[in-house]
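Notebook entry, structure prediction.
Reason for the run: the old model in the group folder had no record of what sequence produced it. Starting over properly, with the input documented here first.
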Amino acid sequence: MAAVPVATPRGRPRPRRWGAEPYAAEVRIVTWNIELGRDVDGAITCLSDRPELAGADLLLLQEMDELGVARLAEALGLNHTYRPSVVHPKTGRPFGNAVLTPHEIVDVRPVALPHRARVSGVERLAVEATVATPSTLVRAVSVHTEIPLLSLRRRREQFRIVAEAARSGPGPVIVGGDFNTAGLRSRRALVSTMTGHGLEPLPDGTWATLSRFGRSFHLDHLFGHGVQAVAGGSSGPHPASDHAPVHAVVELRPETDGEDRRPVQAHHRIGRGSSRPGS
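New structure, fully documented this time:
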């Protein structure tokens, strides 16, 4: 796809480039696995009515189909991008991840994860969107890694690919989604992999995001680089999904570790309420 020059709507302040003067702003983040994208109306109600979820700057969704993402984005007045990884055998609909935001999405790329599911042969994809928040460009990665039927060694490789993709570009980055960390070993492997790549838990802690068989599991996580968490946690269960939404409020902070701060050379404009699945 041909490069498109940077364009900023008239009257809107241009976001600072990576490596510009220090900035300070809060960004509200939500990640939610909406079970097979079945109850979009219920999800819209939850995301509108719960104060800790409403008005998110970055909304990362998993297990969605394109029509469900478009309906949700239209109802909440958000821009969005979506990447399916497979047609799900239970629904017959696309199954994938999305990033939604009230801000301009200026670039999108998929992140292919290694290793198919052992039984179904399903592939996994993450999607990364670069978002022009009022303060600076922020990259957001929506992730759904494989369930524990895949060996922990192979799932750790999926974690690593996500972490490497997140740190492959400059500026603040958020990673969120369903990592299927049903056990303590897998949760430790995830946190170790992410922190080893400079991605810190947002916020640091353990909470239940799914309850099944009389047990509670911490499957859904947020990580970030170039940010500092000031609030967050699980929002608690909702009938729209078997997973609970996870939310965080972070402060953007200037980079101080000498990492690559290359400016973006070109952007692809996306208008409010529109979608670009990526090139």
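Summary: The mean pLDDT is 83.
The old model has been moved to the deprecated folder.
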